[in-house]
Structures are given as C-alpha cells and as structure tokens.
Amino acid sequence: SNGKDQTIKLWDIRKMSSDTSCNLGYRNFEWDYRWMDYPPQARDLKHPSDGSVATYKGHSVLRTLIRCYFSPEYCTGQKYIYTGSHDSRVYIYDVVTGAQVAVLKHHTSPVRDCSWHPHYPVLVSSSWDGDVVKWEFPGKGEAPVLANERRVRRQYHD
C-alpha cells in the first residue's frame, strides 16, 4: 500500500489478525495531504502497532492518490516495488532490501501513475505535466533510461 505517511508498506495478510483492541481517540491535528506539505519531523515516526512486513521511503504522496505496484513476475521475478511521486519522479525499490534501486527523472509535475510492461523491460510513466514517458532497462542491473526524447507524448483536452 502507498500511504499518506509518505511510505510504501508491504503487508502479510496472514499476520493481520490480533487479539489487541484499539481505542480511537480524538484526532488532535489538522494535516491534510491534499494541500499541505508533509511535516518533516513525521517522516521518521513509526506507529507502535505497525504490522507491516517492510517499509519503503523516499517518494512523496501529496495532493492526490498515487498507487504503487510490484514489478512483473515474467521479466523481473517481482523483485521490485515501483511508484510515481509528487516530486515528479518514479521510484523503484528492491522488495527484499528496501533500497532505492532507481529514481527516474524527466517529469516537471507529480507522476500520477506508472506501469511496467508484463513481458518486456519497459516502464511507462504519466504526469500532470501532460507527458507520457517510456523508460527502457538496458539490462545487467543498470537503471532505466528515457527511451527516446522525441517520442514523449503530450496531449491536451479542452
């Protein structure tokens, strides 16, 4: 899951049950991700009952929902988690280590979505800047590169 706390969480649903009860108290804060920056001091906070298996940090989720995905099984063995980001980039994390393996930079506005081809080493990202960008993986563990600057598509609707 990609959260408003600026992290991706990996969950094991087999560990989602608990005998612990939760008492929801009054919310004593006014932060809203749709129009406010995330408080820097909150980036390192961890909920005391966090039941996630792993946490991935570095990207930002502000102003809109941004999904995260596993890379395809066929061409990567699902060894990566990737997501767009409010900071105009695409982030790729190693599922096991949590390390950022690539940060793709081209867009000038939040990257709203991205999609990895199920069989080829190609990823496409779309942004509020109107660009749809194709990224190709050269192989041998190298970071993806912009496929062809001329092939960037920009389309506007009235």
TrEMBL record:
SUPFAM superfamilies: WD40 repeat-like. WD repeats lie at residues 1-21, 104-136. Transmembrane segments: none annotated. It holds the Pfam family WD40. One of its GO terms (biological process) is proteasome-mediated ubiquitin-dependent protein catabolic process. Keywords: WD repeat. InterPro entries: DCAF, WD40/YVTN_repeat-like_dom_sf, WD40_repeat_dom_sf, WD40_rpt. Gene3D superfamilies: YVTN repeat-like/Quinoprotein amine dehydrogenase. GO terms for cellular component: Cul4-RING E3 ubiquitin ligase complex. This is LEC14B protein transcript variant X2. It comes from Gossypium hirsutum.
